[in-house]
């Protein structure tokens, strides 16, 4: 339950940062998790996989990066916005 | 197709912490002391608040925001013991209150008539430890039916608490609970923790609890 509430907040941040109507184009959600953050990483990953598979997302994958300390943050998004390669 | 990377670096709790800071500032400006009451389900938070509202509701100007996953049952119980407003928050499945819910609940409270605000959190010793609600302090309840090692199993909550209430002391003759060991475990996790021992059913230990509340209000007034 704790991890689900954190996952919901991570998805809110990802949706906001992707921009209006762009959540469906998010490919990866990068999350930094500290060893002392009080987070069970496999449970958080499972919750994120579930939520990111549902609208407004469309199958984005979580990429969890373990760090020292108690950090817990969304570090980056990868977005496929449909524009052609440069 | 090009995949672009957006640097975010936003703390997961940033939005909640920002709202909690606003709540804290608003309550302090109104001269309100706020205690976040936390425990596992069934430890006796609502019963302790019933007794407290009856004894001190008017004297200490107590208001309550009470959170539950479903139902208004706790709010209905508390409202029978006070003319003061009891504001219910139904979380609809969430296992904790967040600062946004508390901020919204404050709009329905008469802060000018409030000196002491209790936030009765959802029964859960894990998640509420991570969500700042803008309170001045946490008070954690645990009962003699739960096991002496609660402080060791849920250290974050006990580390954050200013006071622990060991409740349902009237059941002590019927359960294999070692009070001294529970106190030792609690102090091992948080040496500064104040501990009071209560039975809301028998009204035992409640004067010590009321004494803690009065001391916190004096401390606030002196600050």
Quaternary arrangement of the chains shown?
heterodimer
Helix content of chain B: 25-40%
CATH architecture of chain A: 2-Layer Sandwich
* Helix-strand pattern of chain B: EHEHEHEHEEHHEHEH
Mean pLDDT over all positions of chain B:
92
Order of helices and strands of chain A: HEHEE
Question: How would you sum up this structure, described in words?
Answer:
The complex is a heterodimer of chains A (86) and B (223). By secondary structure, chain A is an alpha+beta fold. Chain A has one domain: 2-Layer Sandwich (hypothetical protein PF0899 fold). Chain A has helices at 2-18, 41-52, and strands at residues 26-34, 61-67, 72-80. In chain A, strands 2-1-3 form a 3-stranded mixed sheet, covered by helices on one side. By secondary structure, chain B is α/β, with parallel strands linked by helices. Chain B has one domain (14-222): 3-Layer(aba) Sandwich (Rossmann fold). Chain B has 8 helices and 8 strands. In chain B, strand 3, helix 3 (73-79) and strand 4 (86-90) form a beta-alpha-beta unit. Chain B starts with a strand and ends with a helix. The interface between A and B is medium-sized, with 31 and 24 residues.
Question: What's a quick, concise take on this entry?
Answer:
Chain A has 86 residues and is of the alpha+beta class. Chain A is built from 2 helices and 3 strands, in the order αβαββ. A 3-stranded mixed beta sheet of chain A has the order 2-1-3, with helices on one face.
Topology:
The complex is a heterodimer of chains A (86) and B (223).
Chain A: H1 2-18, E1 26-34, H2 41-52, E2 61-67, E3 72-80
Parallel strand pairs in A: 1-2
Antiparallel strand pairs in A: 1-3
Helix pairs in contact in A: 1-2
Chain B: E1 3-11, H1 14-29, E2 33-38, H2 45-56, E3 62-68, H3 73-79, E4 86-90, H4 99-106, E5 116-120, E6 137-143, H5 150-153, H6 155-160, E7 161-167, H7 179-189, E8 194-197, H8 206-222
Parallel strand pairs in B: 2-5, 2-6, 3-4, 3-5, 6-7, 7-8
Helix pairs in contact in B: 1-4
């Amino acid at each position: 339950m704790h991890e689900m509430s954190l996952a919901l907040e991570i998805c809110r941040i990802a949706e906001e940062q992707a921009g209006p109507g762009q959540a469906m184009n998010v490919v990866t959600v990068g999350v930094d998790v500290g060893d002392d953050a009080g987070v069970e990483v496999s449970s958080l990953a499972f919750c994120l996989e579930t939520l990111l598979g549902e609208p407004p997302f469309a199958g984005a994958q979580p990429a969890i990066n373990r760090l020292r300390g108690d950090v817990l943050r969304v570090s980056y998004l990868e977005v496929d916005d449909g524009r052609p390669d440069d | 197709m090009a995949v672009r990377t957006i640097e975010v670096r936003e703390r997961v709790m940033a939005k909640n912490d920002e709202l909690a800071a606003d709540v804290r500032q608003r309550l302090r400006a109104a001269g309100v002391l706020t205690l976040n009451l936390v425990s596992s389900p069934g430890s006796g938070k609502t019963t302790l608040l019933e007794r407290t509202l009856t004894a001190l509701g008017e004297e200490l100007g107590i208001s309550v925001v009470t959170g539950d996953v479903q139902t208004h049952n706790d709010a209905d119980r508390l409202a029978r013991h006070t003319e003061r407003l009891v504001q219910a928050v139904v979380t609809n499945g969430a296992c904790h209150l967040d600062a946004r819910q508390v901020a919204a609940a404050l709009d329905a409270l008469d802060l000018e008539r409030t000196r002491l605000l209790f936030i009765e959190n959802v029964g859960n010793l894990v998640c509420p430890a991570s969500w700042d609600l803008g309170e001045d302090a946490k008070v954690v309840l645990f009962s003699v039916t739960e096991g002496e090692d609660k402080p060791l199993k849920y250290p974050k909550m006990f580390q954050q608490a200013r006071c622990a209430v060991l409740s349902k002391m009237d059941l002590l003759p019927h359960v294999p609970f070692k009070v001294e060991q529970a106190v030792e475990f609690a102090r091992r996790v948080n040496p500064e923790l104040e501990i009071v021992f209560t039975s809301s059913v028998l009204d035992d230990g409640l004067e010590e609890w009321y004494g803690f509340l009065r001391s916190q209000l004096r401390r606030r007034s002196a600050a």
